[in-house]
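From the shared-data thread, chain only:
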Amino acid sequence: MGSNTTRAILRLLPKELPPSLQSKPATLCQVLSRYPRDGVGRVVHQCRWALKGIHGSYWQVTRTKAKARG
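Structure, as tokens:
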């Protein structure tokens, strides 16, 4: 993607991105909302687990029930 295109897209976005579009760590609901079908079928883990030396642990999302106003 050219730099002109990138600048044009960035101008369309709000200055502060909503939590669902941010790439930093977020709540489980915020993370799942980034994916189709609210993350069903995804594998997720907590970032702090790696800091505690916990490796290979995760949740596999099998169903979700999202609320319109979280």
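Helices lie at 3-12, 28-32, 47-51.
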